[in-house]
TrEMBL record, chains A, B:
SUPFAM superfamilies: Actin-like ATPase domain. Belongs to the eukaryotic-type N-acetylglucosamine kinase family. Residues 28-340 form the ATPase BadF/BadG/BcrA/BcrD type domain. Pfam families: BcrAD_BadFG (PF01869). Its EC number is 2.7.1.59. This is N-acetyl-D-glucosamine kinase. GO terms for molecular function: glucosamine kinase activity; N-acetylglucosamine kinase activity.
Length: 351, 351
């Protein structure tokens, strides 16, 4: 296989086994996000228990959204074909080199969507190519555990969810039910509570807060009354969730209302992890066993002085001293590739 | 004027002044609700300070929704013409007898909608006929105060709002900003918290609650996981708010989670009234002055054993011993007619 990225220094495994010279083929990992789709091409390492770190990325391509509910079937399928073909061309491979494909998508509640996307991808490759479509939480977990499905992942971006696996492959989930059903630690939840605090202060039901001037300024509005029109003009979750930095700024400046909103969010996010860990028994019988907690999403990784991620970690470690919180070093598309590699390796062991 | 309802026993005012023998003309009161429009025709009583109780209803007609955002402009205008004309025919009057028309509509945040509907009604009548389009909270207040705009009204149905006027005509409002902005005492707010409690119990973040079996049974679902799909399949506020009776049933059966949701709702509704009363100084300087609080909507008037309306009244009276809670004896359309009468009477005094 011609490989323009090959520089003669192929990665070696720690235990001295020979690494993939790319002759074992490649894996495609895809992240089907809300606004774009990322596809990475990585070499296939047949020994599932050990991958080189960092994993070599042969190619990375980006296309538009591939969620058919957002952009329609034709556009979604076209984007998917385009991003896959671009990644293969960039890596110097073609479809015959592909061993497996894994796509992570949000919308775990619509299995029929996943099945349709899976059938599209199957149609693009020879029949022996393994195709996996997984929900984004599972791919996010894999991005922090080098593809191993063990431990818990906490995602807190626009929405939030905690998802986990024990060693036997049992799954559990908490939150991820959307804003109507109380995902209070999500970016949307934090922002909606901030907007509510502004309204309550304005109509005399709550204390004054710095959030009023900060949020009005950020949105270019002149009165809290205008927030009602602003909110319902386009109640998309992401648009409202984008106010989290304003809440953090106010909390850092000493605003008590903002501080309480963030403390409550940290409590709630930690509670979601706790629920998953306890249901799966990840902490062991004495509560001290070691397990990874992968932390993903803008709410957890914002790197501000008021650090929501750090506060959540603290709360998790108070309950479970063996919890190892991990911020993934690779993006979700790479997590998808690692996951595919682990699935293939397991299958090889069995056969 | 021919009046098929006249039976020779025309109402007399307490102070002996002559009542309207309908020769003074009629008033039309309209209630433009979410699903239907009601129009009542009542005799015009020129003395705005005193109306007979009960106010005689000459006719009552019902038509479809007249909210142009819901049904489109043509259908909205047609329904409006139809319900007005039917009420006039029923009452034995015609447009030449009409002195004033008042329509109560929800959607106080869209003044352009109100102006359009007002211009439609003006176009249906001679130019001397007074036409008023008011938000539904003001009409609801009038339905409890015989048309006088003084005191506070609390509406808690699908949504909730507190609205008030002092003797000088100053207005104040609290809540009414919709579910994203924290109307927690509304039917929607109560139901969303109940659904959240079911999800939290299911994924291990919260205590078990009777709400789980009760709500699943009411919705014909077999697992809390299915609630996510149910909620987002059609997130209309009214559909979710319709779960309030299930919450009340569980609270009456001793479910602590349900009881807490209702206690919080009662606290929040009372807080909205308190905010309005304090901003307008309705309770006087010593806090004991007498003023009406009109209570409207399915959440307040459900007549269950766990009586949310009674709990709200208790809390209001604890703060304001002079508050007189009133459940209106007449429907909103009659409130609209009383309001028109008061507006016309005030205008007569001035001229």
């Amino acid at each position: 296989m011609r490989n323009p990225h090959s520089n003669g220094n192929l990665p070696k495994l720690d235990d001295g086994r020979e690494s993939n010279g790319y002759g074992d083929g490649v894996i495609l990992g895809l992240d089907g996000g809300a606004t774009s789709t990322v596809c990475v091409c990585v070499p296939f390492f047949p020994y599932g228990d050990r991958f080189p770190e960092p994993i070599p990325i042969l190619a990375r391509a980006v296309a538009g959204c591939t969620n058919r509910n957002s952009v329609g079937e034709t556009a979604a399928k076209d984007s998917l074909e385009q991003v896959i073909s671009e990644a293969l061309v960039q890596s110097g491979s073609d479809k015959s080199h592909v061993r497996g494909v894994c796509l992570g998508v949000s919308g775990v509640n619509h299995p029929s969507d996943q099945e349709m996307v899976e059938s599209w991808i199957r149609g693009m490759f020879p029949s022996h190519v393994k195709v996996y479509v997984q929900n984004d939480a599972i791919v996010a977990l894999a991005s922090g555990t080098m593809g191993k499905l063990h431990g818990c992942v906490l995602i807190a971006g626009t929405g939030c969810i905690a998802y986990g696996f024990d060693e036997d492959g049992r799954e559990a989930r908490a939150s991820g039910a959307g804003p109507i059903l109380g995902d209070w630690g999500s970016g949307y939840g934090i922002s909606a509570q901030a907007l509510t605090a502004v309204i309550r202060a304005h109509d005399g039901r709550g204390p004054e807060t710095m959030l009023t001037s900060t949020i009005l300024k950020a949105l270019g509005l002149s009165s809290p009354d205008e927030l009602i029109g602003w909110t319902y003009a386009d109640p998309s979750w992401a648009r409202i969730a984008a106010l989290v930095p304003q809440v953090v700024t106010c909390a850092e400046a000493g605003d008590e209302i903002s501080d309480k909103i963030l403390v409550d969010a940290a409590d709630d996010l930690a509670l979601s992890v706790k629920a998953v860990v306890q249901r799966l028994g990840l902490c062991g019988k004495d509560g001290t066993a070691s397990f990874p907690v992968v932390m993903v999403g803008g709410v957890l990784n914002a790197n501000m002085k008021w650090d929501i991620g750090k506060e959540v970690s603290k709360r998790i470690n108070k309950h479970f001293p063996g919890a190892q919180t991990i911020i993934p070093k690779v993006e979700p598309a790479v997590g998808a590739a690692l996951l595919a590699m682990n699935f293939l390796a397991v299958k090889n062991d069995v056969s």
